[in-house]
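Subject: mismatched residue count in predicted assembly?

I count 545 residues in my input, but I want to confirm that the predicted structure covers every chain. Input:
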Amino acid sequence: MSSRPPATHACRPLIGVGVGLRPAHYEAILQSAPRIDWFEALTENYLVGGGQPLYYLDAIAERYPVALHGVSLSIGSTDPLNLAYLQDLKELAARCHASMISDHLCWTGIRGINSHDLLPLPYHEEALQHLIPRIRQVQEILERPLVLENISRYISFVDSTFSEWHFLSELTRRTGCRLLLDINNIYVNAHNFSFSATDFIDGIPINAVEQFHIAGYSTQNALLIDSHDQSVSPPVFDLLAHAINRFGVKPVLLERDDRIPALSELTGELDKARQLLSDAH
Amino acid sequence: MPLRQLQTAVQNAIIHNDVGPLHASHVLVLDTASAIGVYQQAYRTRLRDTLHSHYPMLAKHLGFAAFNQLADVYIGRHTPETTSLRDYGDRLAAACLSDLPSDQAETVAELASFEWKLAHAFDALEGSPVTVSQLSTIEPSRWADLRFTGVPSLLRHRATTPAVTLWRQLHQTDTDSHATTGALSAVRQASEHSPTDWVISRIGREVRFRSIPPDESAALDILLSGLSFAHLCEHLADTHHEATASTAATWLKTWVEAGWLETV
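Triage response: the counts match. Full output below for your records.
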């Protein structure tokens, strides 16, 4: 990664409604300064030497608070932690004054392979015992709490002894890590595995949550797929309202990864999320 | 099932379609094949999309179906191993040589190789290119031992086919249809093409490339290999005789103005 002069702004808190930073929006953000409260950058897109990605990240981080959201920490993998990746992540977070560093409660591969998918873990004590020292090590390296997101999943293991929300709660209690609740993922998993989405939310400790994600899903046969290629559905907004009611006002992030529209076309969803936060004040 | 064993079984099912161990152990709640199928499809689609984004002109040239066929073979042979997908696809040029019809394989492989180098330059380290004004402050006594290296985005490309011409033609056309007439024409001329040396680099955010004549290319290689400016002059004395100093100075100024060099 190339060096840059010390920034003149400090790390700023995430407040309000943010949008996932995507290359398709780079120029529009710089030219029109849209009314978006903060941006979430996909960590791996910016772990590069230089060029356009870092140019735009630097420029946008000068104007907006930025959170880093990774997909390759692979905290649940039975391979060793990738310490070089963590060091690069720490440097990137310092560079853009990341207000938050998050990744997913998942594994992405073993034996040196990275599937670049967010694969689920069984929810049992062995998995907890595997995760706890790894989360602690990551937090020591990053010198801040790790924020973990609940993933969407399409497989579930028969030897799980915890519910997903009980498992997440235990992790936060035993490691001090924080949670990023992806409301769409809760909705998708609740549909696919026939549990109550509100039971999930109500089972998470009130003070464990740092942020909410919302996104759209698609359908594939009988399954809901967390595709991030649609607008946020009304039931997911309803669930977000339920989560805000339980956890209080937290930053909300609108994700879109496919069929990405112009920023102006996201206004309706952003306004709706803002209204939910405003109603809770 | 122990966690390591479970992860091995899931990974093998997704990447190698080896669902036997998962199915036999009854570890999944849903039907094994349909549940794993979601991940298998996502894995393949993600890697196809990655290859497409790294090789847009190659994909345009081959067309959607042929490119996907090439990509699927590649995905079957090569698993991603790094934290970023920007590194995935580095061996696609070799796959073109081995998997495409022989009448176009060489040109298409070189198109892939060229496009991969452009992608490298896109987000390579910034580097600290030396400027003409910096060179002008160097004491005359230090010039003989002066050494340079290329900026991190600098890459050489020796074209033995008209692949760069093909890339330009494809880049200038809007169509996504299979191989434009001009592009095909360029491929047919492959046997008539004389080797050309290209230099790829990034200035600011813009990736650029340009060809250089063989004698200039050989001279540039001398500096990029770590040899001193004195070595460059010795080489030019053999080839350019009385114009040694002026040629060396002219070329060095050109390379420095292009932002290609850093001092060591």
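Residues 32-54 of chain B form the longest helix (23 residues). Marking this ticket as 'not a bug'.
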